[in-house]
Specification:
The chain is α/β, with parallel strands linked by helices. Helices cover 29% and strands 34% of the residues. The strands form two sheets. It has a seven-stranded mixed sheet with strand order 3-2-1-4-5-11-10, sandwiched between helices. α6 (116-129) crosses α8 (203-213). The protein is globular. The two termini are 27 Å apart. The relative contact order is 0.16.
Length: 242
């Protein structure tokens, strides 16, 4: 996949973590790692490595995969990054021989796979990287919550950057939006943009794709920091799909 500019443009990636704010959502994933007893974790779409380095700091064996080289460059500069195996690519390009206990997709990464083919290939790649009985955990926004209605006109600001969002198209299940980033005058006043398209799948759709890919749904939970807005799927790999 070709990463959106916010993940691939070095100047934008450099301010991404600060604009993204506190990652309270990662507390939930860290708790799930302990809940399922995972020692090895594959972080799919790891971005700037926020979760990967947190888990590495507690002694877990971590693989972080992301198609954006600029995001990985930021990740590699963080404390504990040397303990993580970083891979530039996606779930369809993972090296043979992985057999991790748990795979995760945080930050609604599951929604960037807008076609059925890309989503199915991602699930298959993850399944093949899990040990038998291993787990896949990920979140996706509930379509009925209509999150995009809160995005239009949303603004974020740091000392050096002002950012705002414009929803460009709502053609369900797809929503396209643009974030614009204005760098402070002292940094030349440049405005950069990043367009994104996400797919909003229903719970029934997600369940069907997981079953086809060889996963059993163990639980569908609320995200503790976003009650009523997200579905957190906790799944297990079957011995074989079908």
């Amino acid at each position: 996949m070709v990463p959106d500019p916010i993940f691939a443009e070095p100047r934008l990636v450099a301010v991404y973590d600060e604009l993204d704010g506190a990652r309270d959502d990662l507390d939930h994933y860290e708790a799930i790692v302990d809940e399922v007893g995972a020692r090895s974790v594959l972080d799919v779409g790891c971005g700037t490595g926020c979760l990967a380095v947190r888990l590495a700091a507690t002694g877990h064996d971590i693989v972080g995969v992301d198609p954006a080289a600029a995001s990985l460059a930021v990740a590699r500069a963080k404390p504990h990054a040397a303990a993580v195996r970083w891979i530039e690519g996606d779930a369809t390009t993972l090296p043979a021989g992985l057999a991790v206990d748990l795979a995760v997709m945080t930050g609604n990464v599951a929604q960037v796979f807008t076609t059925d083919e890309a989503w199915a290939a991602t699930l298959t790649g993850i399944r093949d990287a899990l040990r038998p009985g291993g787990h896949l955990v990920f979140e996706t926004r509930r379509p009925e919550a209509r999150a995009w209605e809160e995005w239009d006109g949303q603004r974020r600001r740091t000392a050096d950057v002002e950012a705002w969002c414009d929803v460009l198209a709502v053609d369900l299940p797809l929503v396209t939006f643009r974030w614009s980033y204005r760098f402070a005058a002292g940094a030349d006043g440049t405005v950069l943009t990043s367009d994104s398209t996400l797919r909003f799948r229903t719970e029934d759709e997600v369940r069907a794709t997981l079953a086809t890919a060889g996963f059993v749904v163990d639980d569908v939970r609320d995200a503790p920091d976003r009650p009523g807005l997200e579905m957190v799927f906790v799944t297990s790999r079957r011995a074989a799909p079908g």
